[in-house]
């Protein structure tokens, strides 16, 4: 019998974190122990059933848990979008490279299903379409691999949007974070000079990622004034902001080339303020006080093609996904509290079935 019609033993129920009420992680989340396990895909289905190894948490998840209404269809709202795991079953329509039982994979839930419907992946088993699953070499650390599709896809889109290439000088604000740490490496792979910004305690880590220059934002506060003094005569081609520092854009003419751009994916000041800033930064004309530099902010839904590309870079040892900390599934609330400190160096990960 072929592997596409077989399935490893799957229990009828599983553990999954659910959000039965609105609020911060500590008060909103509960660990359900009798949550129904997804059905095994059969026949010509393109779905893959995955035994979850690790789940990488997103900084924005707790913000969503606080603002999304508690509706009847979201009372079993399961958070998170990206994971690593092993294939336990797959339909015949799934991609060939993710049909073999026991194969190591990385995968993601799409944003509408995860955020709107609450069909997230912080659970012991997840069933996903094969177009959201990518094979990963068994030698790759699965905790690290769980962050490929979220942070990796975001960093890759920032690099591609900017068109970073050899000869460019770029500033990465938040270089020690989950996105920034990957972004530094991708910029270096393209031959750019990278200046990384983080707190002084993370200097060794950021330098280990390959930055050419390091800036401790606590030592050089306010940061825009320091950048104007140090880089006013050698301005950056791009400012890649993983934090969401509005002052970085407002003062950018002092250290950013006229044809450059600020590309921001951070929401340091919260969703509402960040959305307002993004609108004004993008549309306000200079004669009304707008900043004479381009500002780009975009959503970054994961994609399988990006996951496949990044997985290859990781397998070749050219990129790594730094992991700040790993928490057992029972301690997921503590993992969210770690993210909330804004001091995480790389991904915060929850171990579900990891070895």
Automatic annotation (TrEMBL):
Residues 25-350 form the Enoyl reductase (ER) domain. Gene3D superfamilies: Medium-chain alcohol dehydrogenases, catalytic domain (3.90.180.10), NAD(P)-binding Rossmann-like Domain (3.40.50.720). InterPro entries: ADH-like_N, ER, GroES-like_sf, Lipid_raft_assoc_Zn_ADH, NAD(P)-bd_dom_sf. It holds the Pfam family ADH_zinc_N_2. GO terms for molecular function: oxidoreductase activity. It comes from the Eukaryota. Coiled coil: none annotated. SUPFAM superfamilies: GroES-like (SSF50129), NAD(P)-binding Rossmann-fold domains (SSF51735). This is Enoyl reductase (ER) domain-containing protein. It comes from Penicillium arizonense.
């Amino acid at each position: 019998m072929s592997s596409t019609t077989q399935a490893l033993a799957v229990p009828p129920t599983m553990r999954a974190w659910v959000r039965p009420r609105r609020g911060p992680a500590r008060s909103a989340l509960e660990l359900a122990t009798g949550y129904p396990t997804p059905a095994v895909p059969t026949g010509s289905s393109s779905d893959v059933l995955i035994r979850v190894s690790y789940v990488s948490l997103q900084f924005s998840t707790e913000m969503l848990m606080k603002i999304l209404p508690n509706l009847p269809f979201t009372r079993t709202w399961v958070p998170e979008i990206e994971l690593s795991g092993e294939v336990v079953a797959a339909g015949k329509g799934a991609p060939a490279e993710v049909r073999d039982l026991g194969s190591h994979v990385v995968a993601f839930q799409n944003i509408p299903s995860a955020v709107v419907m609450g069909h997230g992946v912080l659970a012991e088993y997840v069933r996903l379409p094969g177009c959201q699953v990518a094979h990963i070499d068994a030698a790759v650390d699965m905790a690290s691999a769980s962050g490929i599709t979220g942070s990796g896809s975001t960093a890759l889109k920032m690099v591609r949007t900017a068109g970073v290439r050899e000869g460019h000088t770029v500033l990465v604000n938040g270089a020690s974070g989950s996105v920034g740490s990957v972004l530094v490496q991708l910029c270096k792979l393209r031959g750019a000079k990278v200046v990384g910004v983080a707190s002084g305690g993370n200097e060794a880590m950021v330098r280990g990622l390959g930055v050419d220059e390091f800036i401790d934002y606590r030592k050089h506060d306010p940061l825009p004034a320091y950048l104007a003094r140090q880089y006013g005569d050698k301005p950056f081609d791009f400012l890649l902001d993983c934090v969401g520092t509005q002052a970085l854009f407002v003062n950018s003419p002092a250290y950013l080339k006229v044809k450059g751009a600020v590309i921001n994916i951070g929401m340091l000041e919260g969703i509402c303020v960040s959305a307002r800033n993004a609108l004004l930064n993008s549309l306000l004309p200079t004669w009304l006080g707008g900043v004479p530099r381009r500002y780009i902010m975009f959503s970054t839904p994961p994609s399988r093609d990006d996951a496949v590309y990044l997985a290859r870079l990781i397998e070749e040892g050219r990129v790594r996904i730094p992991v700040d900390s790993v928490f057992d599934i029972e301690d997921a609330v503590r993992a969210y509290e770690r993210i909330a400190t804004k001091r995480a160096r790389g991904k915060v990960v929850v171990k579900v079935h990891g070895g």
